[in-house]
Amino acid sequence: MIPYSAPTRDMQFLFEDLGLLNQLQTLPGCEDTSADLVNQVLEEANKLARDVLAPINYSGNLEGATLENGVVRTAEGWKEAYRHYVDGGWNSVPFEPDYGGQGLPWTLATAIQEMFNSANLAWTLCPLLNQGAVDAVTAHGTEEQKKLYLEKMISGEWSGTMNLTEPQAGSDLSLIKSKAERDGDRYRIRGQKIYITYGEHDMTENIVHLVLARLPDAPEGTRGISLFLVPKFLVNEDGSLGDRNDLRCVSLEHKLGINASPTCVMAYGDNEGAVGYLVGQENRGLECMFTMMNNARLAVGLQGLAIAERAYQQASAYAKDRKQGKAPKAANGASAIIDHADVRRMLLTMRAHTEAMRALILDTMTALDISDRHTDEAWRSWAERRVNLLTPVIKGWCTDMGVEMASLGVQVHGGMGFIEETGAAQHMRDARILPIYEGTNGIQAADLIGRKLLRDGGEAAHEYIDELHSVVNGLATVETDAGKAIRKNLAAAVDVLEQATEWMLTEGAENPEAAHASSAHYLRLFGITAGGAMMARIAKTASEKRNSGANGAGEFYDAKISVAQFYAEQILPQTAGLLAPITTGHRTVMALPAEMF
């Protein structure tokens, strides 16, 4: 497998040249987040990703996790890598200093997490779930819960999980049957949960499970769900570990990918009942869990970018080395396959998508930091609307692209991509779960049109589209062929998005079935256009830097402009073909009777 190294220069461009860092430095608590600090942190994170996590990715996939007498053993090197991670303080980067966090922006933490996910997706799922659990306890836990659990979870000494799914209750959480019974100031939990990532493992001394369950007198449906903190080991008042709780891992799932990540079937309360502590209010657990789910949805969207980047690096290196056939303009002898036009098209498709996704995600995480920290309520409200609007787009579009780019990576390798030793096939298998977990992408599309578009009458979407028009208008100053091409194609895509949005708000609102039948196309349209706008901003910035002297980085900025032009001419025109499926194609989706399938 070709070694991994993080695209730190691309990340630095977004922070410094594109201006994300300037926005962050205006926020309380981020004043000292300097360019030097960001660059140092990115370089150190790259060392952990490149030298520790990436080398055990392939071997961990072959070995997998094993269950022995109720104990899950992770693959060789997993525990040691986790110790490096905790000792380096990487888990604590974005969290509150009051509980041992470093208080740095989520935008920087996200860039770091991209590296770890690219290097080893299966390993990084453990801290990914833990960060969401930290968010949920921070937002909804009692002071006592925060005192006992947050410091160890923020350091990474303990890990956290999300326990939603049951055999009969997947995305429809109203079907949950796990039970909770009051027992003084605590509760006894009984039930079974499935698909619990790192529900049991040997990397931390304690695991803090956040579990959805029903009280005996709870109302039906999702309004009767409560959230409970259920530790693997009970925690004494002084923070030391007490007795083992009544919970266990029953089995490990055998999966298509992420084989080294233990996906557990968890049993709670086989004996006296697992001890749990209420998080938030009774029967309002789903509200609390959404704090964790929204964190996880953005994190999974990041995984789509990360696996696309890893697949691109591998395909690019292979294409430069592999010789096959004679390119049209080549001299005698076989050419490296990167000189063949179709291979170049595939590589540029992969690179353009990764750059667009990275920019979109980090720009959105900057808005998240603004929503958390800005002193002006109007700015916080705007940023919250923006993050809410783009969360399903990031989760849905970026994970779809992760699968498609990993597939292209296999294609670039040709027959060798179908052979395990190259590692390209592993990336494709690992990527396939991303459009499924944390809410399938069909659910993300429904969320985009339902909660994020129709519910507010299109306020957040109109606000965003207005900004896209401003991006188009701003390209008027880039009087190059590339600038003109980018402006023309972005303008056309924004017009299509605006037309589709108006259709959703009128026809779609009157006919919910039509809106839902068109929602996946609408999400893809939104993602392509949002990515195109970010690439346009990148091209404009690179052009300005190039014209001002470039400080020896002329080739870097030229490449940015060229890739942005490729995105504009090869990818943005796809939006035109999505308008008809959205506005008229819905008519046939539900026309065929179910018995005819």
Structure in words:
By secondary structure, the chain is α+β, with helices and mostly antiparallel strands. Among the domains are: about 10-155, Acyl-CoA dehydrogenase/oxidase, N-terminal domain (Butyryl-Coa Dehydrogenase, subunit A, domain 1, Orthogonal Bundle); about 160-285, Butyryl-CoA Dehydrogenase, subunit A, domain 2; about 450-590, no CATH class. It is about 55% helix and about 10% strand. The chain has 18 helices and twelve strands. The chain has helices at about 10-15, 20-25, 35-55, 55-65, 80-85, 105-120, 120-140, 145-155, 285-320, 340-375, 375-415, 425-430, 440-455, 460-475, 480-510, 510-545, 555-570, 575-585, and strands at about 65-70, 70-75, 160-165, 180-185, 185-195, 205-215, 225-230, 235, 240-245, 245-250, 265-270, 275-280. The strands form three sheets. Strands 3, 4, 5, 6, 7, 10, 11 and 12 form an eight-stranded mixed beta sheet that branches. It has a two-stranded antiparallel ribbon with strand order 1-2. β8 (about 235) and β9 (about 240-245) form a beta hairpin. α3 (about 35-55) runs parallel beside α6, α6 packs across α9 and α16 packs antiparallel against α17. The longest helix is centred in the middle third of the chain and has 37 residues, at about 285-320. The radius of gyration is 24 Å and the shape is globular. The model has no long low-confidence stretch (mean pLDDT about 95).
